[in-house]
Amino acid sequence: MAADESREDYSLRYAPHSFRRWSPTMVASTALGGIAYLADFAIGASIVFTYGFTSGLASILCAATIIFVTGIPIARACAAYGLDMDLVTRGAGFGYFGSTLTSLIYASFTFIFFALEGSIMAQAMHQAVGLPVQIGYLVTTLIVIPIVFRGMGALAKVQAWTQPIWLVGMVLPFVVLAFEAPDAWGAFGSFGGTEGAGSGFSWIGFGLGTGVALSLIAQIGEQADYLRFMPARTESNKRRWNLAVLAAGPGWVVIGAAKQLGGAFLAFVALEAVGRTHALEPIAPQIEALRPWLGSFALPAAALFVIVSQIKINVTNAYSGSLSWSNFFSRVTHRHPGRVWYIFLNLAIALTLMEMNMFAALNKLLGFYSNVGIAWITAVAADLVINKRMGWSPKYIEFKRAYLYAVNPAGFGAMVVASTVSILAFFGLFGEYAQAFSTFIAAGLALLLCPLIAWATKGRYYLARPNPVNGPHVAVADITATHTCGVCVTAYELPDIADCPVQPGPICSLCCSLDADCGDVCRRSPTGEPVLMPIPTVRTG
Q: Which of 143-147, 175-179, 535-539 is predicted least confidently?
């Protein structure tokens, strides 16, 4: 099963050009279909209810700006090189084993948000048919397995088929309120929250709210899981390619920020009718908004919208989680039973979180996660934008074990220091304002330290040895030429192949990762000199 790449979707390796059969528009629409989630509604409502409209609005817009800016270079790198977030992280300052920590960070993002989205879906099913939420948690977990099992092709179909229902369900409540409650937006603008924050601006509220909203920064990883299937950028498609990458990469947060504000507005309108607790559950505000026009049909219509939305995002969460766990365990254990087995691990953790009612601790959990997530993403973005342009990092992204140091202090060190300091600040060690702005501390330190460490070390920890063949300026014809791995005897495109002194002939990146006995001798010869073994250039496929 692990060798069936039609199901594996190249989960641990470069996505070859031969597999990237979708158009830029198709890849972008599939990637954007995955952001149909309603956690944005709950997050936006929670921020505004806690800190008031003015501080909440500033928080959401500030977080969206940071996410957009850091997402641009990451999205372009993933789309251009056919790599997922983990593989980009390896070559963008973290090293082969250094990125195992970020694999765990990313995996935790997928199961935290799967649990959050699953809770919202279970709430909808409870409202619609009276299904106990504990059983609803199990149903929401099981329903995505057949789709995720089949990989990218099935995900693309699900996103396309469900998009019309989602668009109608997303827009209709606001259309109804525009006619039935035209003064609600004005009242919402002076809303002071439900916890006495007041309608004015508060720096503390702004900092804390931004921290909660920034928990979504790792969403760029899920966008990258689709963007790696973007076709090659050419003269004929470069305009559509650039637009598709921008829209499906960092562009998701434009829709996300609008959803946060829209969700907060719907919750505000429903607050008096359903109370604070239920107003934070997206199903209840949806019902209240639709009731004037749909009457008794408001409940089934709202439930259908919520369920479709949550299926759209949770197939993505489960899919991305399986990729992340695969990357983590392949490096730690040198085993790869197949991507699909890690679907069950990710879903089991998510189900446990749902049964523990993590929805009740939304702000605290997401605020804490932000400190680690933003340190990671900012360090990677700093490497791509600063280090590579300054020449402290290779111009291309090297992701193969055969050429990487185990740990690169530039990105890995920056992330560890930045996240550690910001977590201490988050728990109040440095005072009230540092606590509120802990995520800004994480971002600032990562942005400063990654280039500083790369400069101080002269970039020596990026490549353990030069890549003699598939470096930064390889012609497209050479990239698409295939070479047979000496271990699995399967043909792979050049970027997925490494030269190996232990195995006969070249070795593919996955077989290289799973080799537990080679001792990494390829990185150094007995005399201490780099080993350079050119790969045969005979085309085999």
A: 535-539
